[in-house]
Design a protein that fits this description.
heterodimer; A: Rna Polymerase Sigma Factor, Chain: A; Arc Repressor Mutant, subunit A; 9 helices; B: 135 residues; mainly alpha; 5 helices
């Protein structure tokens, strides 16, 4: 069994996982667990469900790793986020209701309190207001915006994850941003 | 380009997803249009707010639980492999056995006369009567 570290590429890790290497799996999990957890959290809006979905994503990666085909320009991260998006979407469909993320904030101790670094309480309130509004925009707009802004995926990669055209991705992100921009303007006026 | 068209492209402009010509057009427009520049700032503000949103770390025992799940998955796969290893030759034996028996069975063909026990005036009776008449 090899020693895997940050220098190993995602493709190398996936190949090793496909051969049953648990160390490679642990390395990949360490690399993606927080990014996936944050994406799923923001997308479905429930932290405990997000934990289960994130675990399910990793189990699916483990089972499907041997079938992963290396295609030119295809990134492992896109494949991973596609799995996460599909499972999150299933979770939302199953629950048929949307729980507000902010309700869960009080009881969670795992959160990294980056808000403390913010300049003022006003900023914190604005962030909470925007996150709250984010939970109300259409699901596909929310997913596209999160994948772009929080995960840094390109429009082409997002189109693969959401299974839509690149021009649709552009429109989804534009609408999501415009909606939140209007909300911020209203907050400032209010 | 009109301001409305430019503003529809501002989101992609922000993400550097426009082609070089479009990018240049928007850049030039922004140089002399305060309204569109302000719209761009509004979109940038959205990204700034989202960037400053709190990040979550997975719960402390997440990795531990995940590894346990993986171990269970691998061991159940191994158990299945063992079961397959034991039962595969047995299944193969019975499959070959039944194939052999099936091949030994010879299929007999029947003459039309064997179908001549239909009740009078039934469709079958009329059909076979007509065939007999043709013969």
């Amino acid at each position: 069994m090899k020693n895997f570290s940050t220098v190993n590429s995602d493709v190398e890790l996936i190949k090793a996982i496909g051969d049953g290497d648990h160390k490679a799996f642990e390395c990949l999990a360490d690399r993606y667990k927080n990014a996936l957890y944050n994406f799923v959290c923001r997308y479905i809006g429930d932290m405990s469900a997000a934990q289960e979905v994130t675990q399910e994503v990793f189990l699916k990666i483990y089972k499907a790793a041997s079938k992963f085909k290396v295609i030119e320009n295809a990134k492992v991260s896109t494949w991973i986020f596609k799995i996460a998006y599909n499972l999150s979407m299933n979770e939302l469909k199953r629950r048929k209701r949307y729980l507000r993320l902010l309700n869960d904030h009080a009881g969670e101790k795992e959160m990294v309190d980056r808000t403390q670094a913010l300049e003022s309480i006003e900023n914190r309130e604005l962030i909470e207001a925007v996150l709250s509004e984010l939970s109300l925009i259409p699901e596909n707009q929310r997913a596209a915006l999160l994948l772009r802004v929080k995960q840094g995926l390109s429009y082409r990669e997002i189109s693969e994850v959401l299974n839509v055209s690149i021009s649709s991705v552009e429109m989804l992100i534009f609408r999501a941003r415009s909606h939140l921009k209007q909300h911020i303007n209203r907050e400032h006026k209010g | 380009m009109k301001c409305r068209n430019i503003q529809e492209k501002l989101s992609a402009y922000l993400d550097k997803e426009l082609n070089p010509d479009q990018f240049e057009n928007v850049t030039q427009h922004l140089l002399h249009c305060p309204e569109c520049s302000s719209a761009l700032e509004g979109l940038q503000k959205v990204d700034t707010v989202l960037d400053n949103a709190p990040l979550y770390n997975v719960p402390a025992k997440f990795s531990e639980k995940l590894i346990q799940e993986i171990d269970i998955t691998s061991s159940s796969t191994e158990n299945l492999n063992i079961i397959n290893l034991i039962f595969a030759p047995v299944t193969k034996f019975f499959l070959n056995f039944f194939t052999l028996i099936e091949s030994l069975k010879s299929f007999k063909t029947a003459t039309l006369d064997e179908f001549s026990d239909f009740p009078p005036c039934s469709m079958g009776y009329i059909y076979f009567s007509l065939i007999d008449q043709k013969k």
